[in-house]
Amino acid sequence: MTQRAKTEAGGRERATEPDHRGLSAAEVAERVAGGEVNDVPVRSSRSTADIVRSNVFTRFNAIIGVLFVIILIVGPIQDGLFGFVIVANTGIGIIQELRAKKTLDSLAVIGESRPTVRRDGAAAEIPTSEVVLGDVIELGPGDKVIVDGEVLESDGLEIDESLLTGEADPVVKQPGEKVMSGSFVVAGGGAFTATKVGREAYAAQLAEEASRFTLVHSELRTGISQILKYVTWMMVPTAVGLILSHLFTLNMAGDEAVRRMVAGIVPMIPEGLVLLTSVAFAIGVVRLGRKKCLVQELPAIEGLARVDVVCLDKTGTLTEGGMDVSDLRPLGGTDEDRIEQVLGALGASDPRPNASLQAIIDAYPARDGWRSTDALPFSSARKYSGAALEGPDGEQTTWLLGAPDVLLPSGDDALFEVDDLNAQGLRVLLLARAERGLHDADVADHVRPTALVVLEQRLRPDAMDTLRYFADQGVQAKVISGDNAVSVGAVAGKLGMPGADAPVDARKLPADPDDMGKVLEEGAVFGRVTPQQKRDMVGALQKRGHIVAMTGDGVNDVLALKDADIGVSMGAGSEATKAVAQIVLLNNSFATLPSVVAEGRRVIGNITRVATLFLTKTVYSVLLAILVACCQIPYPYLPRHLTLLSTLTIGVPAFFLALAPNKERAKPHFVRRVMRYAVPSGLITGLAAFATYLLARSHYSGPDALPAETSAATLTLFLSAMWVLAIIARPYTWWRVGLVLAMGLGFLIVLVVPWLQNFFDLKLVGTTMPWAAVGIAAAAAILLEVAWRIIGRRFPA
Questions:
Q1: pLDDT of the residue at 19
Q2: Which residues face 527 on adjacent strands?
Q3: Are 164 and 182 in contact (CB under 8 A)?
Q4: How far apart are the first and last CA of the chain?
Q5: Is residue 434 within 8 Å of residue 443, measured between CB atoms?
Q6: pLDDT score recorded for residue 167
Q7: What is the mean pLDDT of the segment spanning 745-768?
Q8: Peptide bond preceding 594: is omega within 30 degrees of 0, i.e. cis?
Q9: Which residues form the P-type ATPase A domain (predicted)?
Q10: Which positions are annotated as active-site residues?
Q11: Which of 670, 592, 596, 583 is nearest to 295 (CA)?
């Protein structure tokens, strides 16, 4: 027998002497000294070394590093400013990720599982990392098996190993049988001894791979990687063409040819785009961490922002965990006092009562003289629990407590009364006396109904506002519960949820995924859903093109959480749900979800904005390099010019825009949406700059003509790029307008301060060509406005 409640002499007292006392303090110390400890690192983030390595050793840092070294050799230093910008960017990325790591690590400690371990005959909760070989670990519903072991005690112990083996049905475990780490308890209780700990445990490798920074699918990351791949392919032939053109066709000096080649290559690299994506995610983690939201996989922030269907478990999500008994209705003339005695004995028979049974325990304490001789733990699959009881008079009886519509045949008179109560949003359990043995497969058949236990659920005060938020954002909410459909619909109706007046009994759902998906799209409330059905429902919605999030806190939610695009668990939920979820709400507040959605939308919307800036620069850089090579003329810019322009029109403003508030709905096809604006913007900007350059070449002459030509072309390129920034900064707010004006002021200062003119080699000569440069830039601005309007109408996102 496990260390569970005993009811002899009527008390609901815990056994003080378990069958297996566990290790002694000396044995624990000996195993710790021998290294037999469960030391698998449960990480909430990458290590500091990983963060530094991933930010420093990147493909583009390597390319820019080589170009920077080349410029240091040929000089002057102002043409190598882009190297210092990369150092600053990398430093910012490292600092922000370390901040995120600190937040994640502190939250992970709060949410860390603490198994109950017996030592010296006493049970205590300890951190997972302190479990040693040979420890006796107790198990109850929802507990995760943290190490491999052998069952010592079983009290109807049922373990789900589907996350490891793919087998959907729970396995009943008897003493002597093996249990594997990574599985979890769905019913019953027991204890096992740890036979493999640390990295030797079955799921240790899985745990390593599933560390907190593992990546769910991220369209942002995938899209940016795709863009960078194309840029890499373009850089090599462009570099070769530029260097050959300057050396052999134009007979330019080697150092000058190298500088012009570097100037053509560096702006093609959208290096800051990768940085800003990482920074935006990292800052999102920090912001959500302040609201006690643990994001176990960073792109989950993005994923939840793309979700269009949220499947909600009623208990623990829309309602608070606790319940109260509001009424007891005897059936068939049964004595109410005897019913209360039986309920008290049933409550005392379960060492780990769920919320419903706890409410009964609180209302009906155990009476003297009752003893439990056997127990059947509650299972969400069968929808009832039971116990074999011996009363004060020695009579042996078997009782079941569970869903009335499961235990009673269709059309039973009691079900009409149950329907009335369910319609009021009340939860109803049936107490019934069984004629068969407790472990008989047909124990629930032909039971004798004895009483209806009416429970009142506590609605979460923030649930209504959260449901309204999702409705306003165009996200469909589906309540999926194991409770009676009418009762669930009544609860959802109290919260003002659309479709709550037409609840669907999941037992009548079609098995075919396509047919099921149609019903799911039409309905909003589903009751009597089994754990396997929850999983099937998630799959059916995904098959119809929906991005699905699943919330839950109970062990019956694990399979659906695992299969959903984004799994969200409550911090007070079972260890199994927290293990498979990408997001854990440590404050147990459903109202935190809108914050996660908003954070994801901020990241996606802002990165899409700034990506257009970066890729506009890439497009016009490629175009200018091709035009210069084809026309056999010198590249118009030095690296210092493009470093200045990139800083003022992209680098500084992109950093602020990437972190700004943004409530725009997340939209798919990131690469397509960015390139449809970046390509025409880059072409218009590049052609405007090249037109000014050609005009300046015909206007200026003499040995100092090239610097004058470069200055005029730089002015057009800056003004055109600034107009792209002005378009992207819309809709305007005071700080966005101020940001654009500040960047323009920065360039003006460079043009009027003598030492900055010399440093950047920028000096406008005369008045005719500078005003022509401004005029060409104005024409480019008009073309940009027209192009953006046409694209917006013909190719909507």
A1: 57
A2: 505
A3: yes
A4: 63
A5: yes
A6: 56
A7: 91
A8: no
A9: 116-209
A10: 313
A11: 583
